[in-house]
């Protein structure tokens, strides 16, 4: 098997310093662990100038698109990393699946309006990446064997002598306003609770969208947001026509390393307190809440089932249940479900069997997705989809794109939501959907 070459660079804790060099390059993408402030993530990954760009066609089945991804990975070809490097990416795919990619995997109604017109999936096939390892405190360029020597030298020069970027700005024209009135939100929740009483479902994730017209460079917005709300599954992906995906997600979807699978669903939220005492009380209340534990357990069961479709029989386990994770704006209740890929399955089979993530749909999943389509007036697009990489070795990590924004066609959109169950109170849920995104909206309004 061919081996990648690795070129060391000076370590940078903040990937923005390197990303600036490729900010305007085609296919520029950054998967960002939120350093130096966020603590959980180990790697940052950035790249640009993909060998190919792959978007799902409107009428293409999910399995056909995933097969195209497989074929493109095979064209790039297997490669290993030289010892002693432990890096997550040796060349491969980086991109997003929107929530609505689920329509290519399951039969769903078409009631919600697709007003954002975002392709349901878009990936680049990358033969190089700049990877920072925050544990080892190293930054390095990784070149797949397919990348020609002249291109390697160009990239080494580019990142060794970063040029200062031209000053840029980002501004909203007006406040971020919700699409739904409080009354419409209340009516939607009443409808969900009717469905729960009727036995259709146990839990439905319901979201509302906020938006404002905007002008300027979305990268400026992203840099401000990552400072205000550092999270371990952040990311920035440039889109055609000056659009971009901006994600400040705290949630992992699925990770595969050496065929070991892990998913970390978040279900259960409390705001951070204004004082240390109030903050500790909010965290304690979340950990002790029967409602939040029940919601979390429902999703853990759903994910055990999803992973069971592609994992070796008997390998699916729950090593962590109801852990507390705290972020600048909220406390979360998080669990972990693990497994081992079956011999005849790969990472894309796992995606096909478990996308979109159960923590942002509800249970049972397909019925919850049908109810979401009926009650949310517009399609979610990127929100609750996934940013991910999958390399030629089969290594993969992916987020659930909550706390995420889309800049496209002169407006910025952001979504907030939560899991609705039989005893949910609409005012509390309405408030929680605001709490989750308040720091994002206030940061944009302050630019």
UniProtKB/TrEMBL annotation:
It comes from the Bacteria. Its EC number is 2.6.1.85. The keyword Transferase applies. Pfam families: Anth_synt_I_N (PF04715), Chorismate_bind (PF00425). GO terms for biological process: folic acid-containing compound biosynthetic process; L-tryptophan biosynthetic process. It is an enzyme of class 2 (transferase). Keywords: Aminotransferase, Transferase. GO terms for molecular function: 4-amino-4-deoxychorismate synthase activity. The keyword Transferase applies. Residues 182-436 form the Chorismate-utilising enzyme C-terminal domain. Residues 13-138 form the Anthranilate synthase component I N-terminal domain. PANTHER family: AMINOBENZOATE/ANTHRANILATE SYNTHASE (PTHR11236), AMINODEOXYCHORISMATE SYNTHASE COMPONENT 1 (PTHR11236:SF50). NCBIfam families: pabB (TIGR00553). This is aminodeoxychorismate synthase. The lineage of its organism: Bacteria, Pseudomonadati, Pseudomonadota, Gammaproteobacteria, Pseudomonadales.
